[in-house]
């Protein structure tokens, strides 16, 4: 077994090497779960034009992790708690404000910075975890454990089941809000529930990709899929396929190179999006 | 407190950066372009890291990268509504490049990457030199004056872009102008409150002003007033409480103003 990994341009040997270490197997498992989960939820997020809210939720992992470390909670529990709280805070305002003059984005922006400012405060109160800031922000695939993979799988299966259950009314309320409301769909409640689901997806993803790079799987693959097809099911599946491609290629490239995984996933995601846009604009 | 030079510098730079953020923020919130501000603030962080890798002054990197991306966003959007998926994808990629730069920075020098990263992300207003704070104040004042001078045509394009275009207002040019102003404020603010927190100075005071009044002129005034007050209060608070970072204190006060304004607006209705 090779300690210094290098590409031999022999597909079988390279693949075998990729699966030789347990940490790499765990990383690929976690990446696969995250890609399917995030791309499915992300498809709705892009359609609902809630990327700003999604990005805000992803940053909430930062106060979640630093706050959790401060009071002695497990870091991942801190992620989920902070993301959930932010989802509820943003959901309240979107439900009550009746199309205010740009006030909705101001709320999202404020929620985001308050979370970050709190995270920075927690960090300065507890300087012990300062060394982990970059890992927190940009992720690492080296430390994924078997337990994390199982937890991720359980969360993803439950959340995707919920999404499948609510898929039709959610799509209806996204495409035509007024008509959905008139036909008895609880649009406001769905808004909050979707934000909570998004929070779950983001918290799960950020443990692998890091807080700042969640968008590589959450936005780019579904956005690329929506450039190519407007049919819901085809778009969802295509988005998931793109996300899997991005994550697998990114992990493999990072394994064979000294450069960080975040660089590769975002670059592949950007490439997929640009290609899809070019094809989409030609038709 | 003002006997210390670093406190005077912080107040000088902080006041004018807050003023510019309040004014620009009002328009950005009115035009629902806050996500572009969010993207630019992350891009600013990459600019700071890139400057550290290349070895030039941090401000060169900040302004070069944010202004370039702002121009790119303006070109992408044209006159239509900005595509937030496109913004999200572009800035995710730029952040990915930032990650690579951090990795390069960490291996090229002995350490230093951690401090540079943390300062760029969360600001270090108390470490500004006298020259740097005068320059920051001058640039922020210039942005404020430029945006104030554009107020009337900007308002027209914000409220009804079609009609403004019909009346001969250069809609695209103004769209580019406000994005460039936003980029300049972001690059400025990165030095003071940090790349991740400048969004708070753009969104919270402006959000509060929009809830309190529909009058644009009063709105811009209230927005900049809240931003400046939050900065002064935050700096004083963090001076008194040493474990409280100045950026967190400033954002906390601005957010409190937004929360109070929301409650006031709701009770008045």
Largest interface: A-B, 57 and 59 residues
Query: Could you say which structural class the secondary elements and strand pairing of chain A correspond to?
Result: mainly alpha
The structural class of chain B is: mainly alpha
Largest sheet of chain B: none
Cα separation of the termini of chain A: 49 Å
**Which blocks of ≥5 consecutive residues of chain B have pLDDT under 50?**
none
Radius of gyration of chain B: 18 Å
CATH class of chain B: Mainly Alpha
Radius of gyration of chain A: 19 Å
Number of helices of chain B: 12
The average pLDDT score of chain B comes to 85
- Count of all domains of chain B: 1
Give a written overview of the molecule.
The complex is a heterodimer of chains A (283) and B (269). Chain A is an all-alpha fold and 283 residues long. In chain A, 79% of the residues lie in helices and 0% in strands. In chain A, helix 2 (22-47) runs antiparallel to helix 10. Chain B has 269 residues and is mainly alpha-helical. Chain B has a single domain (5-194), classed as ABC transporter involved in vitamin B12 uptake, BtuC (Orthogonal Bundle). Chain B has helices at 5-30, 34-54, 58-77, 84-108, 113-122, 130-149, 151-159, 161-166, 171-192, 198-212, 216-240, 246-268. At the A-B interface, helix 3, helix 6, helix 7, helix 12 and helix 14 of A face helix 2, helix 4, helix 5, helix 10 and helix 12 of B.
Key phrases:
heterodimer, A: 283 residues, mainly alpha, 79% helix, B: 269 residues, ABC transporter involved in vitamin B12 uptake, BtuC
Strand and helix layout:
The complex is a heterodimer of chains A (283) and B (269).
Chain A: H1 11-18, H2 22-47, H3 51-59, H4 61-71, H5 75-96, H6 103-125, H7 133-138, H8 146-175, H9 177-182, H10 187-209, H11 215-218, H12 220-228, H13 232-255, H14 261-282
Helix pairs in contact in A: 2-8, 2-10, 2-12, 2-13, 3-5, 3-6, 3-10, 4-5, 4-6, 5-6, 5-10, 8-10, 12-13, 12-14, 13-14
Chain B: H1 5-30, H2 34-54, H3 58-77, H4 84-108, H5 113-122, H6 130-149, H7 151-159, H8 161-166, H9 171-192, H10 198-212, H11 216-240, H12 246-268
């Amino acid at each position: 077994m090779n300690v210094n990994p290098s590409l031999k341009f022999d597909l079988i040997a390279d693949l075998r090497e990729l699966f030789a270490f347990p940490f790499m197997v765990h990383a690929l498992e976690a990446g696969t779960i995250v890609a399917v989960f995030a791309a499915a939820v992300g498809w709705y997020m892009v359609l609902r034009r809630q990327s700003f809210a999604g990005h805000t939720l992803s940053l909430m992992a930062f106060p979640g992790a630093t706050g959790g470390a401060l009071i002695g909670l497990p870091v991942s529990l801190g992620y989920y708690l902070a993301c959930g709280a932010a989802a509820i805070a943003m959901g309240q305002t979107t439900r009550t404000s009746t199309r205010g003059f740009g006030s909705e984005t101001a709320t999202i922006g404020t929620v985001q910075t308050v979370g970050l400012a709190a995270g920075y405060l927690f960090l300065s109160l507890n300087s012990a975890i300062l060394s982990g800031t970059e890992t927190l922000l940009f992720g690492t695939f080296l430390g994924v454990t078997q337990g994390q993979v199982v937890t991720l799988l359980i969360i993803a299966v439950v959340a995707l089941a919920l999404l499948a259950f609510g898929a039709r009314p959610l799509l209806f309320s996204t495409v035509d809000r007024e008509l959905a409301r008139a036909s008895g769909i609880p649009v406001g409640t769905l808004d909050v529930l979707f934000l909570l689901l998004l929070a779950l997806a983001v918290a799960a993803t950020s443990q692998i990709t890091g807080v700042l790079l969640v968008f590589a799987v959450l936005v780019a693959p579904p956005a690329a899929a929506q450039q190519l097809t407007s049919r819901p099911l085809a778009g969802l599946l295509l988005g998931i396929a793109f996300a899997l491609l991005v994550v697998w290629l990114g992990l493999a490239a990072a394994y064979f190179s000294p450069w960080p995984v975040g660089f590769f996933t975002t670059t592949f995601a950007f490439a997929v999006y640009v290609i899809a846009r070019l094809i989409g604009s030609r038709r | 407190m003002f006997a210390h030079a670093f406190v005077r510098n912080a107040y000088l730079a902080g006041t004018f950066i807050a003023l510019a953020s309040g004014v620009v923020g009002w328009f950005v919130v009115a035009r629902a372009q806050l996500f572009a501000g969010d993207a630019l603030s992350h891009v600013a962080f990459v600019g700071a890291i890139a400057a550290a890798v290349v070895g030039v002054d941090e401000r060169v990197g900040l302004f070069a990268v944010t202004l370039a991306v702002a121009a790119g966003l303006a070109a992408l959007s044209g006159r239509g509504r900005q595509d937030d998926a496109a913004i999200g994808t572009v800035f995710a990629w730029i952040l990915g490049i930032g990650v690579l730069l951090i990795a390069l920075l960490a291996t090229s020098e002995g350490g230093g990457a951690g401090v540079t990263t943390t300062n760029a992300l969360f600001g270090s207003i108390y470490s500004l030199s006298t020259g740097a704070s005068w320059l920051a104040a001058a640039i922020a004042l210039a942005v404020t004056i430029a945006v104030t001078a554009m107020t009337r045509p900007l308002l027209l394009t914000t409220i009804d872009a079609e009609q403004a275009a019909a009346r001969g207002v250069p809609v695209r040019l103004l769209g580019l102008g406000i994005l460039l102003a936003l980029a300049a404020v972001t690059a400025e603010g990165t030095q003071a409150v940090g790349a991740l927190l400048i969004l708070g100075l753009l969104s919270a005071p402006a959000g509060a002003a929009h809830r309190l009044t529909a009058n644009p002129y009063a709105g811009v005034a209230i927005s900049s007033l809240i931003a400046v007050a939050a900065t002064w209060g935050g700096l004083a608070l963090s001076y008194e409480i040493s474990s409280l970072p100045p950026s967190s204190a400033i954002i906390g006060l601005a957010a409190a103003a937004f929360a109070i304004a929301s409650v006031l607006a709701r009770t008045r209705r």
